[in-house]
Amino acid sequence: MTETLFYHLERRALEDVLPGLVEKSLARGWRAVIKTESAERSDALDNLLWTYDDQSFLAHAQSGDGDAKRQPVLITVEDENPNGAQILFCVGGAEPSDWTSLSSLARVVMLFDGRDPTFVERARTAWKKAKDAGHEVTYWKEQPSGKFEKQG
C-alpha cells in the first residue's frame, strides 16, 4: 500500500512549494520523479529547480537527458520510474495512469491548485482512484501561515 498525500495549495503557487518538498524527500535519502501534464511544464520546472534558490540547486534532469538511473530527481510527462524513485510528485493535473501499479513507491504526492475548480475536481477524482486502488490517502490543506495541516 502506497501512502498518497494530496496537497491543497491555496496561498502559494506550486513553484513556491515543490522545491522544498523535493529537498525534504532527498534529505530522507529518497529519489524522486516529478510527473507533469506537459512538456512546457516540465521545461519550466527544470529551470525552477536550477534557479529557485541562489544558495543551492536541486540536481535533476528531464526524462531523456543523460542517464536517468544517475538522477536523484527526474522530471517527466510519462508514467515511468527509471531512476528508482521512492516518491512520485504529480503536478499540473498529472496523475498515474494506473493507480494499482505503484507498489514500488513509498509515497505519491498530488499537488493541486485549490483556487481552480477544475483542479479541485481532478483531485477529487484522483482521490477516489487512489482509495479504490487501496492506497493510504491523506489530505493536507495549506493554512494562512503557509504550513500544511493534515485534515480529518
Word description of this protein:
By secondary structure, the chain is α/β, with parallel strands linked by helices. The chain is built from 3 helices and 8 strands. Strands 3-4-2-5-6-1-7-8 form an 8-stranded mixed beta sheet, sandwiched between helices.
Mean pLDDT: 94
- Based on DSSP secondary structure assignment, what is the total number of beta strands? 8
Q: Calculate the terminal CA-CA distance, rounded to whole Å.
A: 20 Å
The domain count comes to 1
CATH class: Alpha Beta
Largest sheet: 8 strands, mixed
Q: What is the ordering of alpha helices and beta strands?
A: EHEHEEEEHEE
Estimated structural class: alpha/beta
Low-pLDDT stretches are: none
What percentage of the residues does DSSP assign to strands (E)? 25-35%
Compute the CA-based radius of gyration: 15 Å
CATH architectural category: 3-Layer(aba) Sandwich
Annotated CATH topology: Rossmann fold
For the largest sheet, list the strands in their spatial order: 3-4-2-5-6-1-7-8
Bin the helical content. 25-40%
What is the compact description of this entry?
The chain is α/β, with parallel strands linked by helices and 152 residues long. It has one domain: DNA polymerase III subunit chi (Rossmann fold, 3-Layer(aba) Sandwich). The protein contains 3 helices and 8 strands, in the order βαβαββββαββ.
Protein traits:
single chain; 152 residues; alpha/beta; Rossmann fold; eight-stranded mixed sheet; 8 strands
